[in-house]
Amino acid sequence: MEAKTLGSLSTSPARRKPGLLQTLRQDIQAIFERDPAARSTLEVLLNYPGLHALWGHRLSHWLWTHRLKLLGRMVSQLVRGLTGIEIHPGATVGEGFFIDHGMGVVIGETAEIGSQVTLYHGVTLGGTSLQKGKRHPTIGDRVVIGAGAKVLGAITIGADSRIGANAVVVKPVPPNSVVVGVPGQIVSRSKPHRSSDAPDLNHTALPDLMGTTLPALMQRVEALENRLNGHETTPALHADHVHVHAPQFGAWRGEDFSI
Known about the structure:
alpha/beta
């Protein structure tokens, strides 16, 4: 799948690019919406390295796009030293971007990030190619990427998706999906997240794919053994267990895991 534009990843209509002041306000507002620990604007301005890194990137990106690439890299490295967050000045970042805690976040040169995206510490948006050109991920609107997750290559993460902590994502993810595991397994949501919904920060709602599938497989094997031995009934111990369906087109069904 080729990387799509950020506009095609959003479920909302096309919108005009906000001005600088509006973008800065949205960056601050995103923190209050997604971090209950935030108490005042002054506290956010002084003590949130994710905001410092984001605003440093907005400056370095402006320099980068105005042919001051060396100066842009220098600003990027200065911000990296101060915050522990490395965002290449060539990366494109939308409004309302929130990096919570942030230490160890790395975002590559050709990464594209939509609006209202949330990243936690240790996240990498990395490349997998030595070729020039697009080699980093495209992240759709309202995507949440959990702590330690790695999203690698020129792949697209569809809008309203959630990447579980420590997942390693190396293939495109459709909109409204949940990804867990190494390599990342895609689960299509049975209850879609919409643009009007509150930010999806429910990190505990991650399906245990193998933990659910293996008992189901054991139950089916036991049922087949009973049939071979002349017993047609399913063992009573597992009579209420629902069989987990195999993934189709690279994605599991959300109904199987109550998400």
